[in-house]
UniProtKB/TrEMBL annotation, chains A, B:
Keyword Transmembrane helix: no
The entry's keywords: DNA-binding, Transcription, Transcription regulation
Protein name: LacI family transcriptional regulator
Domain of life (superkingdom): Bacteria
Lineage of producing organism: Bacteria, Bacillati, Actinomycetota, Actinomycetes, Pseudonocardiales
Length: 337, 337
DNA sequence: TCAACATATTAGAGCGCTCTAATTCAGAAG
DNA sequence: CTTCTGAATTAGAGCGCTCTAATATGTTGA
């Protein structure tokens, strides 16, 4: 590995001082055009590119935004990261990712590693960390939480409005004529709670009897929930699943049991994963504005970094209904085909 | 933000020199136990943690492995990263991710950003970069390529054996009794080429007439390919798709056209994405040893970094057949149900 | 007791950069 | 031809750490 050229090398090669090269590299306006050109040419010729680490050390500022992705396998985060990355780059920051595999211990390590880079700010995407760890991180740099709430005054949060989303699903089904709408909830997570709450509120609003089957965010769980419904012998005309995976499991179990979707039972998912869009699946679902979540997270960090805001930001974004082929009017009761 | 304590602070607080603190932090064996304890206590009390950037700058070494993920949305890479991360951490390195959205220009930028951290090594996961850019990167630090070949002697490669994988699919179908097996290929990529080659070789080996439909790695393309087959009015009994998405699109189009899978047509995918495992899909497919790919990539980098090897490593891993519910014996010709 | 040696500790230069303050340089004004 | 002014350039200290070489400290053998 040949040693990479330094600023001094460029300075010498261009016949100027290191300080001038530094100014050019940060494109300061107070460099004479001729000198600037000469420096740039010298840099080009030597194949020079600035050493960010040294820059960060010397300037005591960082342009790195650390992003902790709780689970890389979940494509949901990929788009949030994309939004975050785009917004960050637009204002001169860069994004460094790290992952924690949804295990608190590994996530702690990952957070520490991120922190040891002394980033300008940190975004935590749906972390499973204890809130104490988050608070401690927030003491050394701005922190924003995506898809997770917090009442800490020094951390910002960006969330999708799960209540609104679930309500959207219910309204859609009611509009189609459904009255027997069951919710397959997502178990423990904070997401699930608000989605369930939204479902319950919407059902109440329509004066319908709510029914919640405890489930989880996997396709297996969705299938199991349907099995439970099957045993009860009272299949509703519509299902609001906790997420897309759960919905797909439910659909699969329904079809196995001889029900047609959506002719006999309508199903709505949540998240609008790439899965839902597959023509084979074509799932009606709730779309979270993922890019926007990322963008807002980046913005929140940058505001804090620049000291433009000290109060906690609490963004709650509106999800959207995406109608595909798993919802339709209910079968006519008593006269089944 | 309160300024974080430095090594000097710890040294003063513990009544020793900065150099000693430095030794303790790198747990050097030549520090007297009493001093070590005192230093550690002081560090603890001040909440000190070393500044990695400063360390990297001073020691002119880095423990960072940069990983460029061409497409975060593709869960395939998530597992490769996991393997890479685990292996890297086990030997004292840490992984920093960056993404390029499968656009050469953005990928270039992402690579430059990664390089500007002066990482100890770089892993490129299925990059779309021109090979010149890769060669240039390899001049400043060790580089390993995953899911992409290279003949550069200073870059290592780790790949799944696509020829073997496609052959596996063909053998499986032949064993089931199929003779009319069509391949829906993946278009441009390097992956596709080797898979197609594997298909052709295996067909020849069984003395069967190969047929390749040009397609792409998306479900839409899979459906389109089936439509083409439909027009030709000669539906084969089995399909070997270029990847899982393609397979799913094909299945969906087949079912729309009244064919049952696998009763009428068997379909094999490639990649064993999480999609394939969904019970609703339950796709027979070829599994790449993703974690292992990551592990080997990390190992290759570390070997180069430590100077233990200078010759190029060319790892070619064996994929495995995962039999699920989209393959079965062929329908009996002429006596269709 | 003291040289001789091993071991523990520290001073101080330097990694590649930024930043402040000082210096140089033009050109305009007197 | 000075003097002044503002702009362009540079010297030099320092960011938080590591590393080499030098120094301090302790142990042992004669």
């Amino acid at each position: 590995m040949p040693a990479r050229p330094t600023m001094d090398d460029v300075a010498r090669h261009a016949g100027v001082s290191r300080a001038l090269v530094s100014l050019v590299m940060r494109d300061s306006p107070k460099v004479a055009p001729a000198r600037r050109a000469a420096v740039l040419r010298a840099a080009e010729e030597l194949g020079y590119s600035p050493h960010v680490l040294a820059r960060a050390l010397a300037s005591r500022t960082s342009t790195v935004l650390g992003v902790l992705v709780s689970d890389l396998r979940n494509a949901f985060f990929a788009e949030v990261v994309e939004g975050l990355d785009a917004a960050a780059r637009a204002v001169g920051f860069e994004v460094v990712l790290n992952t924690g595999g949804r295990k608190p211990a590994r996530e702690r390590e990952a957070l520490d590693r991120l922190l040891s880079f002394r980033p300008a700010g940190i975004a935590l995407l749906s972390p499973v960390l204890p809130s104490g760890a988050i608070g401690k991180a927030a003491e050394s740099c701005p922190v924003v939480l995506v898809s997770r709430g917090s009442r800490l005054s020094n951390v910002d949060t960006v969330n999708d409005d799960g209540e609104a989303g679930a309500a959207l699903a219910v309204h859609h089904l009611v509009r189609l004529g459904h009255t027997e709408i069951v919710h397959l909830d997502g178990g423990g997570g904070a997401n699930s709670t608000s989605r369930r709450r939204g479902y319950l509120a919407a059902m109440r609003e329509h004066e319908l009897r709510p029914k919640v089957i405890r489930s989880e965010h996997t396709d297996e769980a969705g299938a199991k929930a349907v099995a439970e419904l099957l045993r009860g012998n009272e299949m509703p005309t519509a299902l609001v699943a906790g997420n897309d995976f759960n919905a797909i499991g439910a659909i699969s179990a329904l079809e196995d049991a001889g029900y047609r979707v959506p002719a006999d039972v309508s199903v709505v998912g949540y998240d609008n994963t790439s899965l839902a869009a597959l023509r084979h699946v074509s799932l009606t679902t709730i779309d979270q504005p993922r890019m926007e979540l990322g963008r807002l997270a980046a913005t929140a960090l940058v505001e804090r970094i620049r000291g433009e805001r000290t109060a906690a930001a609490r963004h709650l974004l509106n999800p959207e209904l995406v109608i595909r082929d798993t919802t339709a009017g209910p079968r006519t009761k008593g006269r089944e085909t």
